[in-house]
Design a protein that fits this description.
single chain; about 270 residues; about 15% strand
Length: about 270
């Protein structure tokens, strides 16, 4: 029998497109509604390569998690996780560590509702409704403290989320606070939307996202690299998604697609 759903699930509006559900749709998930599919169609009209961009981002997430798992990390804090749908963190990590623990964190109510439904029978993964910039609220949340051992290395994920946080100073403070709280040997993996692939198309996509629950902000490569302050960037440093240990799937994507996402992985010394 499935566990009962929590009574505190936030309400959602299925008539208003959600960035989390749009992403789910692009990844081939089933947790989306007509409004989300309409928004996705509008975004693709503005930027035809967008489905491949989403796929490139998810492929980076998989490679980063697999890398951390191979380094011995068996616990993950996924900030701005969205809906843990196709190719999620716990599935990838558990290929190496069957009991890997994952605390997903998202502020968007729809991600929480759908995520908790997906994870309701999973004892080692759950989704927390919180603002990732409120670091103490995240780290002190009972779900996070139950899943994450703060004395052991953690892989902190901020994949495809920083571009939804326009306040760079608040984002920097939050990342610094997470770095201080995590033990040495922890990892930070981040990706960020970029206009390096096709600036005009990126701007059109930004305008589409600005009509959803999550407006989009684009940052330069230098600005993105600054977000890793205090961490030791691992080779090859900050670059496009196709530069970070590409595999056959990522190599098959067009250059304009992989250049539309900036990525980096760093370690706490």
């Amino acid at each position: 029998m499935s566990a009962p759903l929590p009574a505190d699930l936030p309400e959602v509006d299925p008539e208003r497109p959600s960035a989390a559900r749009v992403y789910d749709y692009f990844l081939g998930g089933t947790h989306n509604f007509a409004a989300d599919r309409a928004a996705a169609a509008a975004a693709v009209a503005a930027m035809p390569a967008l489905p491949d961009v989403m796929r490139a981002n998810r492929l980076f997430l998989r490679r980063a998690v697999a890398f951390a798992a191979a380094e011995g990390v068996d616990q993950y804090l996924d900030l701005g996780s969205g809906i843990p749908t196709v190719g999620n963190v716990h599935e990838i990590a558990r290929r190496t560590h069957p009991a890997a623990r994952v605390a997903y964190v998202d502020l968007e109510p729809v991600a929480v509702v759908h995520g908790r439904m997906i994870l309701r029978d999973d004892s080692y993964a759950d989704l927390v409704h919180a603002d990732l910039t409120d670091v103490d609220a995240v780290l002190d949340h009972p779900t996070v403290t139950a899943l994450i051992d703060p004395t052991k290395p953690v892989c902190l994920l901020a994949v495809a989320v920083a571009h939804f946080i326009p306040d760079t100073e608040a984002l920097m403070r939050a990342l610094a606070r997470y770095r201080e709280a995590l033990p040495a040997g922890s990892y930070l993996a981040m990706s960020h939307a970029s206009d390096e692939g096709d600036p005009a198309a990126a701007e059109r996509a930004r305008q589409v996202y600005n009509r959803t629950t999550s407006p989009l902000v684009l940052r330069s490569r230098t600005e993105f690299a600054h977000l890793f302050s205090g961490w030791d960037l691992l080779p090859p440093g900050v670059g496009s998604s196709g530069d970070w240990y590409p595999d056959a799937e990522s190599d098959a994507l067009p250059l304009e697609v992989t250049r539309s996402i900036l990525v980096g992985v760093a370690r706490k010394p």
